[in-house]
């Protein structure tokens, strides 16, 4: 049975690291559903958050292979992390702003910008709640949607 897993990988901040990690996934036919990368406070290290899907055997293999890569310093799994995802959505200015504002407010969101043509809303919530928000706004016919990918941090 396939499950979704979020993995946090702390690596040395050097060129080619992301290529090696994505190559590990591509070379074995594993899919990356979401990928975010940013340097840590110490500029020598970066954190990579990867969301992938697979059965238990595949997920175990991914973790083993990540541990073997030279620039990888630490690998954390889903049980030990908190996750958030950001979302930007553009609507025509003619849509019902009060309804949209109420919906986005329920998902830690707000109006980001309004101009003569468009309204742009943002939200930041857990990945499952972002999915629920997307279902809730479908009837309002969004013009464009951009998602950040999952941001993750260890909780312990």
Could you give a short description of this structure?
The chain has 156 residues and is of the alpha+beta class.
Account of the 3D structure:
The chain has 156 residues and is α+β, with helices and mostly antiparallel strands. The chain has helices spanning 17-27, 56-68, 97-105, 127-137, and strands spanning 3-12, 32-39, 45-54, 72-76, 81-92, 109-114, 118-125, 144-154. It has a 4-stranded antiparallel sheet with strand order 2-3-1-4, with helices on one face. Strands 6-7-5-8 form a 4-stranded antiparallel sheet. Strand 6 (109-114) and strand 7 form a beta hairpin. The longest helix has 13 residues, at 56-68. The radius of gyration is 18 Å and the shape is elongated.
Entry keywords:
alpha+beta, 4-stranded antiparallel beta sheet, 8 strands, 28% helix, 45% strand
Tell me roughly what share of residues is in helical segments.
25-40%
Q: Termini distance?
A: 28 Å
Q: Which regions are unreliable across 5 or more consecutive residues at pLDDT < 50?
A: none
Integer-rounded radius of gyration: 18 Å
Number of helices: 4
Q: Quick one: biggest sheet?
A: 4 strands, antiparallel
The total of beta strands comes to 8
Strand content: 35-45%
- Global shape: elongated
What structural category arises from helix and sheet content?
Answer: alpha+beta
Give the topology string: H per helix, E per strand: EHEEHEEHEEHE
Q: What integer is the average pLDDT?
A: 92
């Amino acid at each position: 049975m396939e499950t979704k897993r979020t993995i946090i990988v702390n690596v040395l901040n050097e060129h080619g690291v992301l290529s090696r990690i994505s190559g590990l996934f591509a070379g074995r036919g594993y899919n990356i559903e979401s990928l975010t990368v940013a340097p840590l406070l110490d500029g020598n290290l970066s954190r990579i958050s990867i969301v992938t899907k697979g059965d238990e055997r595949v997920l175990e293999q991914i973790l083993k292979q990540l541990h073997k890569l030279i620039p990888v310093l630490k690998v954390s799994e889903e049980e030990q992390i908190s996750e958030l995802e950001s979302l930007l959505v553009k609507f025509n200015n003619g849509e019902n702003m009060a309804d949209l504002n109420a919906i986005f407010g329920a998902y830690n969101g707000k109006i980001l910008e309004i101009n003569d043509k468009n309204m742009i809303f943002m939200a930041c919530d857990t990945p499952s709640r972002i999915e629920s928000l997307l279902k809730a706004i479908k009837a309002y016919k969004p013009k464009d949607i951009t998602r950040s990918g999952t941001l993750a941090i260890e909780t312990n």
